[in-house]
Amino acid sequence: MSTQPTPANEPGRVVVGVDGSPSSLAALRWAARVGGALGLELDAVTSWEFPASYGMAGGIGGWDPEVDAGAILASAVDTAFGGPGPAGLRTHVRRGRPAPVLIAASHHAELLVVGSRGHGGFAGLLLGSVSAQCAEHSACPVVVVHGDETDAAGPAPR
């Protein structure tokens, strides 16, 4: 269980990392099924940061990576559930590197769920760097979902 329990008047939460990759869609579906069975609500979290090549200028040309990250998250939810998602789903777009953002979110969760490999993973790895960091440093139990969207048994119930 988490190191900072959820207040008694709030249901417990499952946090799931979403980057739009097939692995993260499988994780989102899995988290919704298991969270629903356990009476836990769902927080889908994605993160963003300016590429290092942007330097101090950041945001040149009107590009807003937070808006792009939000669109990726919304699309992932729509793809995973065939619509807006289950009751109790909250979506969060946070600035920062994925692992630290998810580890911070784990302090208020009963469970953290991540895919085995996101968009940045090398095909030969069994475990991506984000999932490995989360497994090592999370404040709550971590589930790493292997496979991809085609491995999931269709959309999770709403």
What does this structure look like?
This protein has a five-stranded parallel beta sheet, with helices on both faces. The two termini are 25 Å apart. The chain has 158 residues and is an alpha/beta fold. The chain has helices spanning 22-38, 65-81, 98-105, 129-137, and strands at residues 13-17, 41-48, 89-95, 111-115, 142-145. It contains four helices and five strands; from the N terminus they run βαβαβαβαβ. It has one domain: HUPs (Rossmann fold), CATH 3.40.50.620. Strand 1, helix 1 (22-38) and strand 2 (41-48) form a beta-alpha-beta unit.
Name the features.
single chain, 158 residues, alpha/beta, Rossmann fold
Give the secondary structure arrangement, pairings included.
Blueprint: E1 13-17, H1 22-38, E2 41-48, H2 65-81, E3 89-95, H3 98-105, E4 111-115, H4 129-137, E5 142-145
Parallel strand pairs: 1-2, 1-4, 2-3, 4-5
Helix pairs in contact: 1-2, 3-4
